[in-house]
Design goal:
By secondary structure, this protein is mainly beta. The chain has one domain: Porin (Beta Barrel), CATH 2.40.160.20. It is 6% helix and 63% strand. It is built from one helix and eleven strands. It has one helix spanning 2-12, and strands at 25-37, 42-53, 59-71, 78-91, 97-115, 127-129, 133-149, 152-162, 164-166, 171-173, 176-188. The protein has an eight-stranded antiparallel barrel. The radius of gyration is 20 Å and the shape is elongated.
Length: 192
């Protein structure tokens, strides 16, 4: 940890006013993400993979994958969930700091659980799983990258996604805020 902090301090002393991000720049990360589902008041835990390419200094093409791991529910509405997204980002790079906003179209694939009650009580025997379904959604978000080295960055990303789950009993809103953070990788694909 001390080595990371020392390297950040040494990079901060550089005098270059030039942005670190150039056309051809690529960035990727994999991490745990935490989702808060607004309508169910539940936290979900997911794996989050992200890939980004910069055709221009301020514009990026983005793709991401989320894989559901677990939630705080006794009988989760989602049995399995996998979502993929693609979109555009707009950046305001300044030296090694890179704040951005983005919009994504997402496809959400899931098995949902249908719960029934026996004498007013839900138990394991009353839960059945539906077949895999898919539905579209959308996400908006923003984040901040700090490029520590030509191959590494620290990042934090927050997003709001809007989607539904359709089951035989009801349509449930699955709107959520997601937070991802950690250490990412980056490299330049074009020669200067």
């Amino acid at each position: 940890m001390l080595i990371c902090l020392a390297s950040v301090g040494s990079f901060a002393q550089e005098e270059s006013t030039e942005a670190f991000v150039k056309p051809g720049f690529m960035r990727a990360f994999g991490c745990f993400a935490f989702d808060y589902r607004i309508h169910q008041n539940v936290w979900d835990y997911r794996l989050h993979g992200f890939l980004e390419y910069f055709p221009e200094e301020r514009i990026s093409l983005m793709g991401e994958v989320y894989k559901y791991l677990d939630s705080g529910e006794d009988f989760p509405v989602i049995e399995n969930n996998f979502s993929v997204g693609t979109g555009l980002g707009y950046h305001w790079p300044k030296k090694r700091l890179d704040p951005y906003v983005y919009f994504m179209a997402i496809g959400n694939f899931y098995d949902s659980q249908v719960m029934t009650e026996t004498d007013g009580v839900i138990s394991d025997k009353d839960v059945s799983v539906t077949s895999i379904k898919g539905n579209p959604g959308a996400a908006v978000g923003g984040g901040l990258n700090f490029y520590v080295w030509k191959y590494l960055n620290f990042f934090v990303q927050v997003r709001y996604h809007h989607t539904f789950i359709y089951s035989p009993i009801q349509i449930r809103k699955m709107n959520a805020f997601s937070v991802s953070y950690g250490l990412g990788f980056n490299f330049q694909t074009k020669k200067k």
